[in-house]
Amino acid sequence: MTRTAFRRTVLMLIIILLLAFVGILVSRILPKKGSSNTTEPIPVVEVKSDAEIAKAYFPEDYIGYRYPVLPTMSTWPYGNHADMISVCQIPENVLKEMSTEELLESVLYYPLFPDAYLYDSRQKAYEIFKNSMGAFAELSRREDRVACLDRYWDTHRGTSYLVTGVSEEIFHANPLSVAFFLAGQEDFQDSNLSKILDDTPSTYSFRQ
Q1: What is the pTM of this model?
Q2: At 84, is the secondary structure helix, strand, or coil?
Q3: Are 59 and 109 in contact (CB under 8 A)?
Q4: 64 near 108, Cβ under 8 Å?
Q5: Which residue has better confidence, 180 or 200?
Q6: How many angstroms separate the CA atoms of 201 and 191, rounded?
Q7: Per-residue b or e along 12-24, where b marks 16 or more CB atoms closer than 10 Å to that residue's CB
Q8: What's the pLDDT tens digit per position in 13-52?
């Protein structure tokens, strides 16, 4: 092979390599068939303020204790269940001053009530709540607790409550589920409350 022919061969190889390299770049830059070359914008998630979360959690006619820390708030202690229980405790001096109606609503809006679904029965869940939460224990000692629950059910039965709305990204309470939960406990056994148990919410169930 002459020197000229050798140079031509080397030049051809260089050209082929360059074309291959350019082809690779083009294939990465240009969209594949059937795909769009536009980049989808990353959806912007609106962060709710703590004040907005509290406003959405408590209805306008709520008379119970306003828990200062709620799930999805910036101050909610994610990952530490003991701290979650702690921030939901109502101070003892406040409990003693509350009317039974106020105390009942505080229990009905207990932020950690979804924990009840983790237990094998509602009775076991109730006993754990009584042992860990002062509000449940105090309510169980009130002589007019059954009458208050009865009145609450008659007043609020049929009210629509949004349970943990993912689309709204705000945690919501469902007090009627908690009322049903209480009505099934020995502390609340009364013939007047049988109507609550007969109206079993479709969103509420326990393994028996």
Answers
A1: 0.70
A2: helix
A3: no
A4: yes
A5: 180
A6: 19
A7: eeeeeeeeeeeee
A8: 555 555 555 455 444 444 444 444 444 554 444 557 888 8
